[in-house]
Write a structure and sequence with these properties.
extended, alpha+beta, 4-stranded antiparallel sheet, Surface presentation of antigens (SPOA)
């Protein structure tokens, strides 16, 4: 039996590394271009869900498949914790009108 929570879709991506390059170099890139990243093959990667980094992981290559093993779950950023706390606070009681 599927619940409503099972129907929620989350965009998950993995950030392998970062680089900085001038716009003119980016515009000259074509098919087959190689982008060098400031990361090594044994470095941890960031696992992102809906734009928020929530875990760190290690890339595993198994045959022709690339997988990410979660190695560390990160604490929620403060702003998300506060938003969740605000969502769970009870609604204030409406004030009775004076007769």
């Amino acid at each position: 039996m599927q619940t409503d929570l099972d129907k929620v879709l989350i965009n998950v991506s993995v950030i392998l590394g970062h680089t900085i390059m001038p716009v003119h170099k980016l515009l000259r890139m074509g098919r087959g271009a190689v982008v060098e990243l400031a990361a090594g093959e044994s470095d941890q990667v960031e696992v992102v869900a809906n734009g928020q980094v929530f875990a760190m992981g290690q890339v595993i290559v198994a045959g022709t498949r690339i997988q990410v093993e979660i190695t560390e779950l990160l604490k929620r950023p403060r702003i998300i914790r506060e938003a969740l706390r605000a969502d769970n606070e009870p609604e204030p009681e409406p004030e009775a009108e004076a007769a």
